[in-house]
Amino acid sequence: MEKKKEFKVAVAGYGHVGKDTVKTIIENNAIMEKRTGIKLTIKTIFSRNIDKVKDDKFLDKIEIKTKDLNDILNDDDIDIVIEVLGGMDTAKELLIKTKKPVVTANKALLANCFGELIKNRKTDIAFEASVAGAIPIIKAMKESLVSDRMENVYGILNGTCNYILTNMTKNNLDFKDVLKDAQDKGYAEADPTFDIDGIDTAHKLCILSSIAFCNVISFDKIFIRGIRNIILDDIVFASEMGLTIKLIAEAALDENNNAYIYVIPTLLNDDNMLSKVDYAFNAITVVGDRSGDTVFYGSGAGGRPTSSAIVSDAVTLARNSLITDELRIPILGFVEENKELQVKDFREKNENFYVRFKSNNNNLLAFNEAFYDINIDKSMERNGNFMFVLKDVNINSIIESIEKVEKIDDIFIAKIK
Amino acid sequence: MEKKKEFKVAVAGYGHVGKDTVKTIIENNAIMEKRTGIKLTIKTIFSRNIDKVKDDKFLDKIEIKTKDLNDILNDDDIDIVIEVLGGMDTAKELLIKTKKPVVTANKALLANCFGELIKNRKTDIAFEASVAGAIPIIKAMKESLVSDRMENVYGILNGTCNYILTNMTKNNLDFKDVLKDAQDKGYAEADPTFDIDGIDTAHKLCILSSIAFCNVISFDKIFIRGIRNIILDDIVFASEMGLTIKLIAEAALDENNNAYIYVIPTLLNDDNMLSKVDYAFNAITVVGDRSGDTVFYGSGAGGRPTSSAIVSDAVTLARNSLITDELRIPILGFVEENKELQVKDFREKNENFYVRFKSNNNNLLAFNEAFYDINIDKSMERNGNFMFVLKDVNINSIIESIEKVEKIDDIFIAKIK
């Protein structure tokens, strides 16, 4: 095996995260080399808008600045490719075509194309930055919890949603006002669909659950409900019960290898560490049969934190490339998939739920009667809203019961954990 | 390089942690092999009391059960040694003499002998289990935060102290009563000195700070104050200020490479995640210049959680043994030490402090006057105790000022963070 210390890197993408990645590699190169013995040198920067950024001072010492992807694909001198393009097309082309190990932060690409990307792949993909920014949850799950049967993984994975929910809770504000404020401050996109409808959270959950349960999870198997239809009353009601609402991504495995994988607003108890995670922070709890509950908390987004994850991944890839094939750290943390795994429909899983909806035609009694077969823990009417706490029931039964009385489109359902 | 899948393991020590390590390796071997491609086989068990445990059902399939350390030291067939003996003498002999990579959970040994253990060493030592049980903080610091300048690492590292403080806080109990209860329940040793005087916490801090600051930290450079002289009034007073008292181990690095490394009761703000860490749980916050604050929380002790860390270390050692020397993960997370690092005396570091003591001879006014040069934020007398909140001052000045009035032995000092 060739002995080397220096690894040449190509960075594809020079937006927010790309810039901070270049900055971290250049500014902290000495620290990194003293720690690891590995020197990362950026040889090439690719950007579709390279003409606009050519004069950036961090790019001075970088040999190749290009808008031609082939300058990365055809350069055998490059050891590691860092993909921070975002989007699907170019990123996917790069990941499929390159013969080099790749670091990527592209959760949408991974969640949608994991099977395709790893099939017949000869080189590594590392993706610590794709979930929860700087929090080293991927390495922890792939390398630190190898002897655990991971029974449950759940977390707050989207800073925008958590910022909105925290603000509603702490300042008694309505969803729409907080969303607008978040958009003004740059915490939420002009089109916030991806975030508030839970899609981004589900992309990350797809990655985490694939590692936890040792199988490539299809994104379309994930049940997804976001926070778009939450109202202040939900938060007030939860808080009266001593509970806090968070958008939780969860993957649960039962003893028969049935997995339930879902994103849903969730009422958390005060003694749950995740109930304390506020504003744009992310956190993940992994429940292992040996380790018990381990919680990882930190900055889930932002260029600087994300660059920390990207650069440590580059070091891991450099080391991993020196290990004989069979014993390398596997891309998704398993060498043999769990064939017995069955992903079930969350709508059929019994849990405790909080349900709220509005009816113009019927009264509380009508719905109480409709829930006759369901264990009703609490029921009340407030500001024209009917609110229920239902125990040991599944979403399909809830909807079915409500529809026996009336077809209602806007039903807010939150799991109680 | 020889291609292998199976790594033969010797487990030295068959107490609490040793038993659970054997159990985890045997019970979860299939999971682990599917994840990693690596099969761990326990060949040898060493225990000074092996005659007593020979009939244990988990030992049935293990080839060698011995009370002779040479059966490990002289067996070339063994690939990895797991040291869970505890204590110093035999453990040290094993770590020094073995030519194989070693996993150890022995924080006291590491903190006191790190320099000696790694000097001229040809094989690896892994020690995830030595700090905070199942929490993968060592791997995170050594591998995930390689591009960060780690500016501060602080944590709750001793479950016994945290159990006592949490119980005092939640149930308004006196230190002595809670300690006795903890001893009755097995959470505290009959001789609790190691825990409540902060020694165990300092051992773990020694390990964490060595990694964070890239140098072997001498244990005797660590300032240590435990919780032995805390009283309920301290907790009540803190809580009236909206603060929670925890025994915090902290290592702080300033921009000039001056490090302050200390264990001291600390008053934490409610928005600090560590203020929410209750009972026997551990948590560590790492502050990096890129990653920001990342918090790791979980089970800090117990056989099962500790075994999770031990077994993942064995896998890491197996992989690491396949990498060319220069690029292996270094034992303490650095290949070149930070020569500029200066460990300074915490007693000279200015911080905000809470101070409480009793005087039979003098009144509050006398001490207020003695603190003339110090910024007094609050001062009061309660149940015969004088309590002060002092700003931007160091411990030496505080003691000196008090002694201008009266020599007092029992002064409780807590940092305010």
Can you walk me through this structure?
2 copies of one chain form a homodimer. Chain A is α/β, with parallel strands linked by helices and 417 residues long. The first copy, chain A, has 3 domains: 6-140 and 302-322, Rossmann fold; 144-299, Dihydrodipicolinate Reductase, domain 2; 350-416, Alpha-Beta Plaits, CATH 3.30.70.1110. Helices cover 35% and strands 26% of the residues of chain A. Chain A has 15 helices and 17 strands. In chain A, strands 7, 8, 9, 10, 11, 12, 13, 14, 15, 16 and 17 form an 11-stranded mixed sheet that branches. In chain A, strands 3-2-1-4-5-6 form a 6-stranded parallel sheet, with helices on both faces. The longest helix of chain A has 18 residues, at 303-320. At the A-B interface, helix 1, helix 2, helix 7, strand 12 and helix 13 of A face helix 1, helix 2, helix 7, strand 12 and helix 13 of B. Strand 12 of chain A pairs antiparallel with strand 12 of chain B, so a sheet runs across the interface.
Offer a concise description of the structure.
Two copies of one chain form a homodimer. By secondary structure, chain A is an alpha/beta fold.
- CATH homologous superfamily heading of the largest domain in chain A: NAD(P)-binding Rossmann-like Domain
Round the Cα radius of gyration of chain A to an integer and report it: 23 Å
CATH fold name of the largest domain in chain A: Rossmann fold
Largest sheet of chain A: 11 strands, mixed
- By DSSP, the count of extended strands of chain A is 17
Q: Percentage of helical residues of chain A?
A: 25-40%
Q: Quickly count the domains of chain A.
A: 3
Oligomer: homodimer
For the record, what CATH class of the largest domain in chain A applies?
Answer: Alpha Beta
Overall geometric form of chain A: elongated
Please identify, by name, the CATH architecture of the largest domain in chain A.
3-Layer(aba) Sandwich
Q: Summarize model confidence as the mean pLDDT of chain A.
A: 95
Low-confidence stretches of chain A: none
SSE-based structural type of chain A:
alpha/beta
| CA-CA gap between termini of chain A | 51 Å
Largest interface: A-B, 73 and 73 residues
Note the beta-strand portion of chain A.
25-35%
Counted by DSSP, the helix tally of chain A is 15
